[in-house]
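Hi V.,

You were right to ask for the full record rather than a summary. Here it is.
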Amino acid sequence: MFSFNEILPLGNKPAPRLFLLGAGAMAEAFIRGIVRKGALQPEQIYVLNRSRGQRLMELQEEYGVVPAKSLMDAADAAVVVLAVKPADAAQALDELRPYLHGQLLISFAAGLSTEWLLEAIGNQAAVVRTMPNLPVAVESGVTAVAFAEHVTHKDRLLARFLLEQVGAVVEMEESLLDAATAFSGSGPGFVCYFLEAMEESARRLGFDEETARALLLHTVAGTAKVLLDWQLSPEILRRRVTSPRGTTHAGLQVFEQSGLKTFVNEALQAAAARSAEMGKQFKTKDRPKD
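Predicted structure:
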């Protein structure tokens, strides 16, 4: 393991080392993880947000980061992070392009391929496409990552190091990122929908809201911890806790008879298809300028 400054030492140059374009929830989660874990000093992080100047002041007050004066600050950065909405990416990258000269560019913009990103910046940076999920906000998320061709080993290590400050990192072929968007990106929403149903049922069984919520969350968190710590598959753990003709078996029979697995598969397929569709819409509507 290495630190950011070990691989990219500051020397005597007081330049920004990380430049974020965008200051939304994902940018803040990234900043929080990096600062809290000491991967970078706050004064090494520059943030630019065109439409909400007050937002930059809030991030400065909370984390000590530096509000960037303009896109020119990106020229001195070792890593540039694209944290804008996909619909705003084309204009943002067109304006950013003159200040790129081989830096590492990490994109949080959903649906935008590495090929499109490289075209938008005139191949002036090493591009990493990512799909983080909601739990990165509490440093317990997972980020799916795909690297463009010709990204160096050092840049791969650097990208992983930064992204690991907010959770696990899983590398994959870019062709799987739409599926990752459906699975881990939309997954928290799907899990919460199932938990909503469990919580409603708990209240029908007679629990008050506070008790139902406590039982629910600790059950879910504990089960996830068992799976992680014991390195078990969900199927194996399910079999271990299911006694023949017991209570778990009775409930699982209802799930099986109702076709739950089929519904889950259809939901994931629909989400993946929508991710691919959205990417095509943005790439068609917002082509980079020549």
